[in-house]
Amino acid sequence: MDLPAGVVDAVRDDLVSSPGALTPHRVAEALRRAGRPVGDATVLAVHDALRRDILGAGPLEPLLRLPGVTDVLVNGADAVHLDRGAGLELTDVRFPDDEAVRRLAQRLAAAAGRRLDDATPYADLRLADGSRFHAVLAPVARPGTVISLRVPRARQFSVPELVAAGMLTAGGARLLAAVVAARLAFLVSGGTGSGKTTLLAALLATVPPGERLVVVEDASELRPDHPHVVGLEGRPPNIEGAGAIDVRTLVRQALRMRPDRLVVGEVRGAEVVDLLGALNTGHEGGCGTLHANSAADVPARVEALALAAGLGRDAAHSQLASGVDLVLHLVRDRDGVRRLREVAVPVRDERGLVRMETAVRFERGGGETTGPATETLERALAGLA
Predict the structure, then answer these.
(1) Rounded distance between C-alpha atoms, residue 345 and residue 257, angstroms
(2) Helix pair angle (271-279, 247-254), 10° resolution
C-alpha cells in the first residue's frame, strides 16, 4: 500500500516520544493524534514500514533472503542492486530518502557496537548473522549514503560442485586434490568477487579430518566443512577507539595453537610478514587469499605489503620463494562465471627476485595448456622439490 508522504515519519516521531513496544494499537493512536486516516489497511501498512525500519536489514531483508544472493548494494535512496552470481541486477527496492538509508546504516553499525556519524562517516564490520557490512555516509559518498552487504553462504561448495559450476575442470580438481594431499603451501589470488574464498573453503574441506586448521581472518567468511577448525577473527576499535585486534596479532597467536595448517583468510597488510615467516619455519600446507590482477602480479603485491610492514625487498622475495609453493589465480569472466585460470610457481631470477612461471593454464572452453613450470610443480607434488 502506498502511504502519503510524511505519514511514517510523523508516526515515528510520535512513538519515540514515549517508551513502549511497536504494536498496531500504538500506531493507530499515533495516527489519530496526527489527524491521519486510521483504517486497518493504513495502520498495518505503517506498522509494517516501521517494523522493517527497526528490525533486521529493513527493506533489504527480503533481498538478503533470496536464494543465491551474494551481495546487496545500496547506492543512495533510489538504487539498490543485488548479485546472484551473474552480475549486478537493479531491484525494485527504494528508500523514501537518503535519511532513511542513513538511519538503516547507523542502526546496523550500532548493533555491532560501532560508531557511524559525521565524525566517523564509514564503518566496516560483521553483523550477527555473519553478513559483511560496509557503509559510507553522505556527503562523503555520492549519490547518497552507500551500503554494501556481503551475504554468507548457507553452506559451502564442495570441489565436485565447483567442477559442475565451471570454476574447475576435472583435471584442475585432480591437480588441486594432489596439492592439498602433498601439503604444499599456496596462495589463492584474484580480483574482488572472483571466488577466492569459495575455492579455498572447498579445498580446506578436503584436508584429512585428523589435521587441525587454524583460520585467521579480518572478518569471518571462511567456513570450511571440516571437523577441526579453529577460527580467529580480528576486531575493530569500539566506540571509544579502544580494543582493536589486528590480523597480524592473531597470526602470531595462531602459531602457538599447534596448527597443522595455518590459513589467513585474506592477506592484506602486515600479516604477510608473519605468514611468510610461518611458512618458512616448518608449517606446511599453509594458505591464504590475496588480491592481485594476475598470478604474475603476486610477487609485486607481496613485496608492497611486506615493505609497508618493514620487511626489505630482498627478504620479502626470499621468503616468498622458499615459503610458497604455488599460486592459484582465479578470474571472473564477463558472463559472471568464476573459474581457475592458472596455476603458477614462484621462481627466483639471477637477482634473487621472484617471478611467477605458469605450470598449467586453464582455457575458457575447458582446455588445458602446460607452461614452463610444469616439471617444477610435478617435482613439488612428488616431494622432490
Answers:
(1) 29
(2) 20
- Residue of 342, 310, 382 whose CA lies nearest to 186: 342
Q: State which H helix or E strand residue 329 sits in.
A: strand 326-332
Whether 358 contacts 373, CB under 8 Å = yes
Give dist(CA 219, CA 51) in Å, integer.
Answer: 28
Chain centre to alpha carbon of residue 32 = 47
Q: pLDDT tens digit string along 19-43?
A: 666 777 787 887 777 777 667 777 7
Fold of 58-152: Beta-Lactamase (3.30.450)
Q: Is the pLDDT reported for residue 106 higher than 80?
A: yes
Q: Please state the domain extents for the chain.
A: 1-55, 58-152, 159-381
CA–CA dist 168, 176 (Å, integer): 9
Q: Which of 328, 311, 308, 309 is nearest to 319 (CA)?
A: 311
